[in-house]
Amino acid sequence: MEIKNVVIPVAGWGTRSLPATKNVPKEMLPVYRKPIVQYIVEEAIAAGISDVIFVTNQNKRIIEDHFDRNFLLENLLERAGKDLLLQEIIRVAEMANIISLRQKEQLGLGHAILQAKDVCKHDPFAIMLGDDLVFGKDAGIKQLIDIALKEKKAVVGVIEVPKERVHKYGIIKGTEIEPGLYEVNSLVEKPKPENAPSNLAIIGRYVLLPEVFDDLEKQEAGVGGEIQLTDALQGLADRGKLLAVKLRGKRFDAGDWVEYLTANIYFALQDDALHDDLSAKLRELLPPK
Ligand code: G1P
């Protein structure tokens, strides 16, 4: 058994990042040299996934174009002798099979995932949310896939968050069965701190079983009047088929300006060509007190 499909919902408006996202999809905002969505797709490919299913809307076509060949640009780079860039552009275009599905009304994350039913109804599949960037060796979706294949269960990625931030996330209540691995008993989407069953928050990485589509079809609107994925996952939990694992690695919330900017600096600092100059500029901006 392998997991070959990932669903990446990209139909959201990106209101947290306006006005930058008025006409540019938030998934196409750059983190250093690459758009956010490229990091997500690269993480999926590194975990052995081959097919990327974007759940999209009419304003998001440039996301698909980013993963397609562009012969005009390729010719130009070839004639200019820019071989490294040319190879990089072609590599991105050939990285994955891309499937685009339209979410014609934005009725919530659960509704977005339901659009992928016909493509994903036969095998376990991954979901990755574009706001969450996760980095580190075998971190992110690979960590979940390894557990899902071993345990034959669905898995969500979680991190510990401070109590005052639980209202931003889906929160799980679980029984720890191994260090950092939980059997999920119940889940609640964006609870008030006083109602949160724990401080374990779902981050945008999931491996689910196709039976979740039956749950999603029955799911009524929840918090914010939206069909919530978190609510539908209660079905898997009730049937004893949902685990949660604490995510390793570094994580940035790309929809938060501080974290988005930090991610840019983090990646730029990894590049030897920029490291020293950028460090000097940062010191200029933040002189010692
Ligand atoms: C979504 C999910 C939530 C999850 C979060 C992770 O919320 O509904 O359960 O914790 O992503 O980023 P959103 O951030 O889209 O409101």
Q: Give the strand tally.
A: 13
Counted by DSSP, the helix tally is: 11
Low-confidence stretches: none
Which class in CATH terms? Alpha Beta
- Listing every helix as H and every strand as E from the N terminus to the C terminus, the arrangement reads EEEHEHHHEHHEEHEEEEHHEEHH
Distance between the termini: 57 Å
The overall number of domains is 1
Radius of gyration: 20 Å
- Examine the coordinates and then state which fold CATH places here, giving the name of the CATH topology: Spore Coat Polysaccharide Biosynthesis Protein SpsA, Chain A
Helical residue percent band = 25-40%
Please tell me the overall pLDDT.
Answer: 95
In spatial order, strands of the major sheet run 5-4-1-6-11-8-12-10-9
The CATH level-2 architecture is identified as Alpha-Beta Complex
Range of strand content: 15-25%
Shape: globular
Secondary-structure class: alpha/beta
Chemical compounds bound to the protein: 1-O-phosphono-alpha-D-glucopyranose
- Report the sheet with the most strands, covering strand number, pairing sense and barrel closure: 9 strands, mixed
Look at the structure and name the CATH superfamily.
Spore Coat Polysaccharide Biosynthesis Protein SpsA, Chain A
